[in-house]
Amino acid sequence: MHILNHQNLKTLNTFGLPVNAEKLVEIDSIETLMGVLDSEYFCKPYLILGGGSNVLFTQDFPGLVLKNELKGFEVLSEDDKSVHLKIGAGENWHETVLRCVENGWGGIENLSLIPGSVGAAPIQNIGAYGVELKDVLVRVHFVDLKTRVAKSLDNTVCEFGYRTSVFKTTLKNRIFITHVEIELSKKHTLHLEYGAIKDELNKGKIKSKSKSESITIKDVSNAVIAIRQSKLPDPKELGNSGSFFKNPVITEMEFQKLEKDFPDIRSFKVDENHVKLAAGWLIEQCGWKGKRIGNTGSHAKQALVLVNYGGAKGHEIWTLATEIIASVKERFDVQLEPEVNII
Ligand code: FAD
Ligand code: EPU
To answer: Which one of 163, 165, 181, 183 is the catalytic residue?
Structure first.
């Protein structure tokens, strides 16, 4: 176990905030994790960090950062229809998607180019372009940090929902996810219902495919990558953590009232009684899109993404976020909630 003192986290969070952690340790095996838990260094506060793509540090971290580096990619079983994988939580999510696509294993191609680690993916049940992790997830393995016991939870008891799970609620800060099991398909069902995917597929190379050549999961992955690159800033160039807020879900009755006043409002039906509003549209309507305040602002191509133009402090980004929350509340009487974990 190698405990590092006074570590700068600038390269370990996608907002690029140069905060300091009092101590940091890389967890590259379960034995290392157990050793740390039994050592004098494991005390509160502690923070598990994967790719740092869903956190906002508002100050230095006065405790121990457990940087997840648990690797591994194992085929547990396979037949001619599907493959069952067990993946180390410290593997990179996007590289895992590409590896699966290259192998012809379908189910996560719509989740291409989402930054971060495999282990963080179940926490907010990552989702994009009509697919969520829960659609392929079998089981999550973790160590309970209180009892030090290794356990697992099957999909049905993970309480998955839109950008949430039991790991983001009841078990938040109580467990260290070590492995994730997923089941992917060799007979592909493509998810093309998100309009932008079809438009992208109809462009360029895909359009020139002959009728007998069908669309592949690789085509879908490439289309999703192209769409994302056209509107989401690359954290390597502009610090951000994707959508800063969740899309608010309101009741059908509340929606009908809103729609009377704002007939252009962008929304998606969730179920009989619930409607999801496009937070990006709400924020844009309040005049924030592309607006820069000091070194932070709302992105010009996607209002839901808050950015660090360089040199911003975490608390400045949080101040901007609270101002956006207040103005959306005032104009639409809708409460925005952060998707990002505020530290
Ligand atoms: P981190 O930011 O390191 O951690 C997030 C939280 O999980 C923290 O609270 C941390 O303590 C906890 N945590 C991390 N690893 C573990 C572990 N092993 N055990 C226990 N707790 C842990 N998300 C989507 O859902 N859909 C998108 O389309 C999407 N697009 C994005 C685009 C961009 C450009 C960016 C920057 C982010 C985007 N995100 C998206 C958000 C983010 O990528 C995901 O939430 C991702 O799963 C976070 O992974 P991470 O490893 O970076 O987590
Ligand atoms: N919109 C605007 N103005 C904006 C941004 C969006 O009017 O500035 C409108 C768009 O025109 C569209 C609607 O809002 O009608 C939805 O926009 P988009 O398709 O870009 O998706 P989103 O709802 O803003 C969500 C996720 C993303 C995910 C995409 C694709 C949330 C909070 N965000 O964004 O996830 O990649 O859909 O599925 O659910 C993330 O979680 O970090 C993230 C990037």
So the answer is: 163
